[in-house]
């Protein structure tokens, strides 16, 4: 670990660069992108299996995903997901679901290893414990995403119920509609807060993860928008990779997203180290 005064902006940037190189953020991001790709469709299929018992459609789920995924990536996800769901699969809420959760948790497990690297700690939790943490975080993410899907569907009805039965002013309805617009942002905040707090093999305070959470939340959305604009206007991946163009775009998006998540963890680790140094 480099001995750097990180109480100043210059020192923080120097430490940030050191960790970027020393912790091999580029390589870890590539690993995470690979696991994200393997986990994506099992994760979405499991969510669709659950929301099949709720008044939520596949289009509602795809609408939430489309807020982050670049256009060509979104087309690839939608096409393949509909193709998978059209095939007969038998009872999903059985052993197949357990296998699906296990597969989907691989991405979370990779994030755990990356955040342990950021905090310079080894994973001394048993394989079963670390895998259970990954599965629990996966299930928690599913719950949060389902809530995010339910709010747009039932948000208006919930607001009208509160307005009618509790005599809440009309201004509340405007505020409620405004809150529902930013659901995707709050979903990201909650999911990342859970990841940064529970994933590392380090006892943390919840107050120690917020800088990384907001960096990753805003950074991910900005990176997704910028990459989507680039693909739409400049990057003709289909001309270079043919039918694999959509997969290449998806992998690059996963790669950039993984890098943002890892950098958020690095920021939390740097600020925690700075706080401990001051104390």
Automatic annotation (TrEMBL):
It is found in: Cell membrane. One of its GO terms (cellular component) is plasma membrane. The keyword Transmembrane applies. It is a multi-pass membrane protein. InterPro entries: Virul_fac_BrkB (IPR017039). The keyword Transport does not apply. This is Ribonuclease BN. Its main location: membrane. It comes from the Bacteria. Keywords: Cell membrane, Membrane, Transmembrane, Transmembrane helix. Pfam families: Virul_fac_BrkB. The chain crosses the membrane at residues 32-56, 92-112, 132-154, 174-197, 209-232, 244-271.
């Amino acid at each position: 670990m480099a001995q750097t005064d990180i109480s100043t902006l210059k020192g923080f940037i120097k430490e940030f660069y050191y960790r970027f190189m020393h912790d091999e953020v580029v390589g870890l991001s590539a690993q995470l992108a690979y696991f994200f790709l393997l986990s994506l469709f099992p994760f979405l299929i499991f969510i669709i299996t659950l929301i099949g018992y709720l008044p939520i459609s596949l289009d509602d789920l795809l609408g939430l995903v489309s807020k982050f995924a670049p256009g060509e990536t979104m087309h690839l996800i939608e096409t393949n997901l509909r193709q998978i769901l059209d095939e007969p699969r038998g009872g999903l809420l059985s052993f197949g679901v357990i296998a699906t959760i296990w597969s989907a948790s691989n991405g979370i497990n990779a994030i755990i290893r990356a955040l342990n690297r950021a905090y310079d700690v080894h994973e001394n939790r048993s394989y079963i414990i670390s895998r259970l943490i990954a599965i629990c975080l996966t299930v928690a993410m599913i719950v949060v995403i389902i809530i995010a899907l339910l709010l747009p569907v039932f948000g208006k009805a919930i607001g009208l119920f509160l307005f009618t039965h509790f005599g809440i002013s009309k201004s509340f309805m405007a505020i409620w509609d405004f809150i529902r617009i930013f659901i995707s942002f709050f979903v990201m905040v909650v999911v990342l807060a859970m990841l940064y707090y529970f994933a590392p093999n380090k006892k943390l305070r919840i107050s120690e993860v917020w800088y990384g959470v907001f960096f990753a939340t805003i950074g991910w959305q900005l990176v997704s928008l910028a990459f989507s604009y680039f693909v739409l206007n400049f990057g003709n991946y289909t001309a270079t990779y043919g039918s694999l163009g959509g997969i290449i775009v998806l992998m690059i998006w996963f790669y950039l997203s993984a890098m943002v998540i890892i950098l958020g963890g690095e920021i939390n680790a740097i600020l925690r180290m700075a706080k401990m140094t001051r104390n």
